[in-house]
Amino acid sequence: MWMDTKATPEDDGGGRDKRTGFVHKLKLCTGDMLHLDSPLQDRWWVVQLLVWNLRGVARVILANNPLSGALILAALCWASPWSCVLGSVGLLCSTLTAVVTGQDRSEVRGGLHGFNGMLVSLLMGVFSSAGDWYWPLLVPAVLCSATCVLLFSALAPLLDRWDLPVAVFPLTSPSSCSCCAPGPSTPTSPTLGRPAGSSGRERHTAGRAAGSSGHSCGRGADLCLCRSGTVSAHPGAVLLYSPLLAVHALLGSAVGTVAGLSMDVRSSSLYSGLSGFNGALGCMAVGGLFFTFS
């Protein structure tokens, strides 16, 4: 009778093996995914370039996961195809410039020379007064993306003396030049004024603040420059790379949103996430990237 009711060890072992195999496959898709580097060395160079670029996209959210980069790129394409085209051109141009100029191969493989080019191209598209699908904008986007790599290589030896990362320093100079260089009558002149439809400082009612605070926190954690709703895509990409980093992103965005409410900032800035994304980036950098969590 005891032998009839006893579970066979083969069944238990098979169930555990399936669960263990699923968890192992899931872990392979998280983190840095460094196990991709060795197999890619024997693949076509185009495939390697694709993975390098996807890592560069993920670097925008302080991650280093090609799947996170693919998710961000898909969300960006869904929100604004023109921004996706601009960002992809800048990303590809900066990565190829790093390869041609002989930058450190480990940095190129990790996407460190791609995200600045992508960001400066996205900024040019967002601030341009020409609107979407203005193809001549690709020329300054390509030039500024290549300039980011040159500035990166020039600043790295200088900042290494103080043990400081280059980070987005190469982004600020080309972005400032692209905003200041065009005249006010050119199609690429920036529109840095008040958003359309806003009339001064808007008051926040208690009901609207309570009803939209969660959406504002999500938009604040939406760290790429999208103009329409991809609220869950980018926090999901951060979560895929590191759950700890995702918690810090939402925490920083929540604090920034509350600070914006307390300072009575413009409603269009608050509810679009502009008051939270700097807090999200700062909290991610301090709590999950440059310092050890304790």
From TrEMBL:
Membrane topology: Multi-pass membrane protein
Subcellular location: Cell membrane
Membrane-spanning residues: 70-100, 137-159, 238-261, 273-293
A molecular-function term among this protein's GO annotations: urea transmembrane transporter activity
Any one of the GO CC terms: plasma membrane
InterPro entries in alphabetical order: Ammonium/urea_transptr, Urea_transporter
Region of interest: Disordered: 184-216
Keywords: Cell membrane, Membrane, Transmembrane, Transmembrane helix, Transport
Catalytic activity: urea(in) = urea(out)
Domain of life: Eukaryota
Matches recorded under Gene3D superfamilies: Ammonium transporter AmtB like domains
Family: Belongs to the urea transporter family.
PANTHER family: UREA TRANSPORTER
This protein's name: Urea transporter
